[in-house]
Amino acid sequence: MSLLDRFRRTSNVADPLVTALQHALAPDRVRNDGAERSLASHDASVFEGGVSGPVCFPTSTDEVQRITRIAVEHDRGIVPRGAGTGLAGGAIPLGAPIVVSTGKMNRILEVDIENRVAWVQPGVINLDLSRHLRPRGFHFAPDPSSQQVCTLGGNIANNSGGPHCLAYGVTDAHVLAIEVVLPNGDVVLLGGLDPEPGGYDLRGAFVGSEGTLGIATRIAVRLTKNPPAVRTLLLSFAETRDAAQTVSAIIAAGIVPAALEVMDQRMTVAVENYVAAGYPTDAAAVLLAEVEGLPAGVEIEADRIAEIGRANNATGVRQAASDEERALLWKGRKTAFGAVAQVAPDYYLHDTVVPRAALADMLEKIYEICERHDVIVMNVFHAGDGNLHPLLVFDARVEGTLERVHAAGAEIVRASLDAGGVLSGEHGIGVEKQGYMDELFSDADLDHQNRLRQAFDPTCRANPGKVLPMGHSCADIQALRAVPTGVWG
Amino acid sequence: MDLKLDADELNACVQCGLCMPHCPTFRVTGDETLSPRGRIRLMREVHEHDAPMTAEVVDAFATCVQCRGCEPACPSGVNYGHLIETTRETLTRAGKLTPRWTRLGFFALAHPRLLRAGSSVLAVAGRLRLVPKRFGVPRDLPLRRRRHHTSGTDVYLFTGCVMDAWQRDVHQAGQRVIEAAGFGVTPTGSLSPCCGALQAHAGFTDDARRRATATIAALSEDDRPILVDSAGCGAAMKDYGHLLATPEAEAFSARVFDIQEWLAERIDRLPAVDPLPMCVAVQDPCHLRHVQRVHLATRTVLQPFVRRIIELDDDGLCCGAGGAYSVMQPELAGEIRDRKIRAIDDVDPDVVASANPGCSMHLAAAGVNIEHPMVLIDRALQGTASAGGR
Ligand SMILES: Cc1cc2nc3c(=O)[nH]c(=O)nc-3n(C[C@H](O)[C@H](O)[C@H](O)COP(=O)(O)OP(=O)(O)OC[C@H]3O[C@@H](n4cnc5c(N)ncnc54)[C@H](O)[C@@H]3O)c2cc1C
Ligand code: SF4
Ligand code: SF4
């Protein structure tokens, strides 16, 4: 059905599902107009083809539970949505399910500094939490580049990472307990505040489940103390390979930096054009390295990193002289994905992880693949853990481009897996990467993953059609579930 | 529907969402329809896919404060200002957005006597509590105004419309400060009664162009700098080059400076005096911070004259005033203001400094003690710190 038709089917259709939802929440917190549904059908990925049912804005666990029960009654799917910044299409609704936006579940419920725990609602923005904790000297460690807008619910569902996860670990290491509304409407608490809660680690199963096991409605996160001292270095290189080698050498030297981020020249030029932080635009690659800890220690480590850089042919080494300078450098790195539009209006990226030792070769391979497919590539990546983000930038309006982009992307994934890597470092599988799951996992692996899914959600109501490929999930059952025609797109 | 948008400007948005938390309407509603990414997506649906202009879509555009907080936040350099202005112009022409009768109000803006008469009526009505509070009109509008006087020809001081009627004392404070730095000032007064900013905001772009042409004609006898102490007017006048797309307009826009921006370069020329014994929180008007991007000048010029400057920890989020926004969308404007007031309360200043009449009135209406930075500097220069006011 065309977009236009979807728009035409607007709120004036009195649908019993919508009426029930409005009755359970409030009329103005259930939106069924074309505008709202069209927005809920997209996230930050290039995936088109989502079709959203009514969009709900609950404010409490209780309301999420009511929505879920209505979904059961009306036999509809249900898709949680945070800020919609996912890059794998995780929040994109398939088959006109009810979309549950956490936009109004954005309260920080309790901060317990003594025990280093905070209870939050899932719609709290990642950076808002750290900002709230700043006067008390704490923060939430996982810092996805999208942290100024993405939500903690989304972070948990994707087990997101960020530049500083090199030292602190990804989201999973910072979540203690999760209150979840299960797809049948039951409310359970997974995990707990005890360091070693007994029983199976269901909390661990939920983290990274991309909305397919239920909706997180309250989250207990671990708070991390702000480091007493930080040093940030910017190293530039005439060869990308030298940057990659420097990264390996730093780790090999036993230094555990808080962050090690690399950008190649195209990326650096775009970023510098936006932030004007003094990134060298003539370097083939730049390495942003950060060390944290006690003042004396960071001095020594910063000097060591500079030394290692020089030994690996760094053409420039600069240390941020002030907090402002440091913030500006990070602002550049963290807005990199957005800045690519200066080159072309669309981007498609993969998120594979390769062993650090394979980084330099892998980068060369990526350039080679993209050149062969006549696709522009911009590289920015979490070098410390080998997590690549090759951004293939293009103009979707030009016929045939998307096919070339996907072909190049597929080759990059294959090359990464061949190099002993994995499919997704942090962005999740969603709908975008589903097709590659077969290549990474055996049939038996996938069947067991599906059994876990079924244990939580036997009818495949939660975020139907995601993560597990067709044939290995109840996605096919879902696809068969009749969507009433004439009402939904 | 053809929204008359530039295809490349529209396509510059990659839907990354980084702008969303910088949008006041998204912040208070958590609803993506009321966010920059959402509005841009809707423009696309309407413009490129011919989606119908439903009430909800119109509402998404009508509720945009046009604070442009989304612009500096956008790493792709999306020119949201152009997109929303063009969209609103098209909708207004089609009779879908700003009701035509409001044009009458805008007519008065360009006619100083009518405006001042109207304003005096409002002043009386306000004192008699006849104006509904939700209109946000201050209850203590001036009944009498001191006449403008010219002290020289070094610079123009642009006095504008509503501000001249309601806050002429701010102009006069600004003039004294510039004079104290050793420059002669010509207040523009009825020479050039209105810059057209509010008209442009509302989508009456033809009216705005007429105002721009008249303003340029009136102030182009020589090429002296034109200082503006209202952030909204300054932003509009710096944009004449784009609005009219003529070389004269470009040249004119290059002569326009925010008064603080201009003074910051010459701050050494002001005498050293005792600073006011006050901690001042700076509330950056959006059109100073996000559009003109010269808000740092406020710190430079205030620094020597107050005890301490305090920053609000809200990334310069809009206060909800937005020209006529607080009248057209009182509910959202109120929620946005509440958020700003919480940010102000968090730092507990003696006074808040804001260089835009709209923001001042909107915040003052909620009980915030707020002054134009020029008024504070003037007070320090006069040594009337402890007297506490005008
Ligand atoms: C510019 C940019 C930079 C980025 N940088 C990084 C980065 O450095 N590291 C990184 O890991 N990712 C990054 N991302 C990807 C994305 O921001 C993260 O995956 C983020 O965690 C998604 O959060 P969200 O609130 O936007 O979630 P959404 O996109 O709305 O949803 C993501 C998934 O979470 C599910 N979900 C949302 N809320 C809940 C809930 N309450 N309960 C259960 N499931 C839920 C959704 O169904 C969906 O499957 C970036 C994205 C952009 C646009
Ligand atoms: S306007 Fe800019 S910041 Fe906002 S979604 Fe589009 S590209 Fe991203
Ligand atoms: S101009 Fe202001 S209100 Fe409008 S979309 Fe941008 S940030 Fe939001």
Model description:
The complex is a heterodimer of chains A (489) and B (390). Chain A contains 18 helices and 18 strands. Chain A folds into five domains: 17-101, Uridine Diphospho-n-acetylenolpyruvylglucosamine Reductase, domain 2; 108-225, Uridine Diphospho-n-acetylenolpyruvylglucosamine Reductase, domain 3 (2-Layer Sandwich), CATH 3.30.465; 227-342, Alpha-Beta Plaits, CATH 3.30.70.2190; 344-440, Alpha-Beta Plaits; 444-479, no CATH class. With 489 residues, chain A is α+β, with helices and mostly antiparallel strands. In chain A, 35% of the residues lie in helices and 19% in strands. Chain A starts with a helix and ends in a 9-residue tail after the last helix. In chain A, the strands form four sheets. In chain A, strands 15-12-14-13-17-18-16 form a seven-stranded antiparallel β-sheet, sandwiched between helices. In chain A, strand 17 and strand 18 (390-394) form a beta hairpin. Chain B is of the alpha/beta class. Chain B has three domains: 7-93, Alpha-helical ferredoxin (Fumarate Reductase Iron-sulfur Protein, Chain B, domain 2, Orthogonal Bundle); 148-263; 271-382, Rossmann fold. Chain B is 50% helix and 8% strand. Chain B has 22 helices and eight strands. The termini of chain B are far apart. The model of chain B is unreliable at 385-390 (pLDDT under 50). The A-B interface holds A 3-4, 7-8, 10-11, 31, 33-36, 38-40, 42-44, 57, 83-85, 101-104, 106, 123, 125, 127-128, 131, 146, 148-150, 270-271, 273-274, 335-342, 345-347, 395, 397 and B 11-18, 20-21, 29-33, 38, 41-42, 45, 49-52, 54-57, 60, 74-78, 313. The structure holds flavin-adenine dinucleotide (FAD) and iron/sulfur cluster (SF4) (2 copies). Flavin-adenine dinucleotide sits between chains A (43-44, 79-87, 90-91, 102, 122, 144-146, 150-151, 153-155, 157-158, 160-162, 210-211, 215-216, 337-338, 426-427, 463) and B (16-18). One iron/sulfur cluster binds next to helix 2 and helix 3 of chain B.
